[in-house]
Amino acid sequence: MTNSGGPAIEVVDLAKAYGDSRNLVRAVDGVTFSVAEGEFFGILGPNGAGKTTTLEMIEGLRKPDAGTITLLGQSPWPRNPAVLPRIGVQLQSTAFFDRLTAREQIRTMASLYGVQPAVADEWLERVGLADKADTRVWDLSGGQAQRLSIACALVHDPEVVFLDEPTAALDPQARRNLWELLSGLTDSGRTVVLTTHYMDEAEVLCDRVAIVDHGRLLQLDSPANLVRGLDAPTRISVSPGQLTADEARAVPGVDDVDADAGSITLRTREPARVLTALAEQQHLAGISVQTGTLEDVFLSLTGREYRA
Ligand SMILES: Nc1ncnc2c1ncn2[C@@H]1O[C@H](COP(=O)(O)OP(=O)(O)OP(=O)(O)O)[C@@H](O)[C@H]1O
């Protein structure tokens, strides 16, 4: 079922506060954005930024204090049975029936939606858990449990899937393995909304990223545009044997030079000019080039280093 061309999600002036007047936490403080059909949309921010609260309101699990939400053309609140089968919500693994095996778990989820057991088994295969089908959920590794919870959210083939920090608490290798699975989720036109506090994850996976902090939306764009709009210097590192700090400063287009025992880093807003000069001087061996990152974007938006 399509949504007749409209956005999958539209959020206008959304607000939610917790606590009372003496101790009010504005968890979500006037947030507006929309998510296109088929988009991989990221909500990125440090702990407590309001990501989960935003997601729960869109999913219809929490009532907003103010603002409107349109999910697949309808209001998700009060709990809307017409929308529920069309969305998938990744449960945290603690919500599993942990005495069940992986196969029993996903087949149970499937049966709630009237989905055939064979389809559930296919999903185990697709997330790389076929060989863990008979393993009890509590014996799965962190990464395997996350895969199972993602498969459970997808088993009824929802049009929109919500993933709340799907790679939290995983080691870097397991996170990267999971990215492969996640990046394919929009292939068939499905819309994905993912929250994360990992900058690199948002950069790799998302078509667009909403950067949030203290309940407010600071910026919303594609990772490339966010970084491009930043006017952050490109950092070019060369090994110290290649040239001295003084020689580096003399390279045309270099703004600044950081020298330490391990390397010499040239900062420039004209990377092409600097790289051309380094090539002419035969200094390209062992070079590494680092452009701006979402971390730089966050720093320039908030004046603070990003701490997840
Ligand atoms: N049920 C609640 N009662 C009171 N305060 C809450 C409740 N849920 C969240 N908060 C507060 O609201 C703010 C936003 O929390 P939220 O969980 O939405 O942020 P988050 O960006 O998802 O953070 P995290 O990455 O840590 O999950 C935080 O200050 C949090 O302490």
TrEMBL record:
<keyword id="KW-1278">Translocase</keyword>
<dbReference type="Pfam" id="PF00005">
    <property type="entry name" value="ABC_tran"/>
</dbReference>
<feature type="domain" description="ABC transporter">
    <location>
        <begin position="9"/>
        <end position="239"/>
    </location>
</feature>
<dbReference type="GO" id="GO:0005524">
    <property type="term" value="F:ATP binding"/>
</dbReference>
<dbReference type="GO" id="GO:0016887">
    <property type="term" value="F:ATP hydrolysis activity"/>
</dbReference>
<protein>
    <submittedName>
        <fullName>ABC transporter ATP-binding protein</fullName>
    </submittedName>
</protein>
<dbReference type="InterPro" id="IPR027417">
    <property type="entry name" value="P-loop_NTPase"/>
</dbReference>
<keyword id="KW-0046">Antibiotic resistance</keyword>
<dbReference type="InterPro" id="IPR003439">
    <property type="entry name" value="ABC_transporter-like_ATP-bd"/>
</dbReference>
<comment type="similarity">
    <text>Belongs to the ABC transporter superfamily.</text>
</comment>
<keyword id="KW-0813">Transport</keyword>
<keyword id="KW-0472">Membrane</keyword>
<keyword id="KW-1003">Cell membrane</keyword>
<keyword id="KW-0547">Nucleotide-binding</keyword>
<keyword id="KW-0067">ATP-binding</keyword>
<dbReference type="GO" id="GO:0046677">
    <property type="term" value="P:response to antibiotic"/>
</dbReference>
<dbReference type="InterPro" id="IPR050763">
    <property type="entry name" value="ABC_transporter_ATP-binding"/>
</dbReference>
<dbReference type="GO" id="GO:0005886">
    <property type="term" value="C:plasma membrane"/>
</dbReference>
<dbReference type="InterPro" id="IPR017871">
    <property type="entry name" value="ABC_transporter-like_CS"/>
</dbReference>
<dbReference type="InterPro" id="IPR003593">
    <property type="entry name" value="AAA+_ATPase"/>
</dbReference>
